[in-house]
Amino acid sequence: MDLERLITFFQELTPEAVERFPEFYGADAYFKDPFNEVRGVQAIAGIFAHMYRQVEAPRFEVTERIADASGAMLVWDFHYRVRRWGRSEMQRIRGVSHLKFAADGKVIYHRDYWDAAEELYMKLPILGGLMKYLRTLFAT
């Protein structure tokens, strides 16, 4: 796998580039994140296409990488813009992707780890207040 090429693909991803996933992912690749679990490169591409319909200006920034011939761990920041009460706000989610490569170098396993409670739910108006309360209640 040309890891730098894959990282560049994600960091420069556009709605039009989503159709390029088969260049990087095997036909039967597996993907899981806190909200999705799918198999197949077209289903994976569909998740990223959906991302462009849900948020404005999504962008990945890979900040660290650990890799060998069979896989990689990518630490990333996902930046995006959301509209709230007529205003547009920038948001960030921090996460890690665990990737495994096939013999041909294509991704066959992609698991994203990120804390949905801290990175997403805590930022929602009503649910965020409840999450903050629960966090203080259970903190030591």
Automatic annotation (TrEMBL):
Matches recorded under SUPFAM superfamilies: NTF2-like
Domain of life assignment: Bacteria
Listed Gene3D superfamilies: 3.10.450.50
Domain SnoaL-like, residue spans: 9-110
Record's protein name: Nuclear transport factor 2 family protein
Lineage: Bacteria, Pseudomonadati, Pseudomonadota, Betaproteobacteria, Rhodocyclales
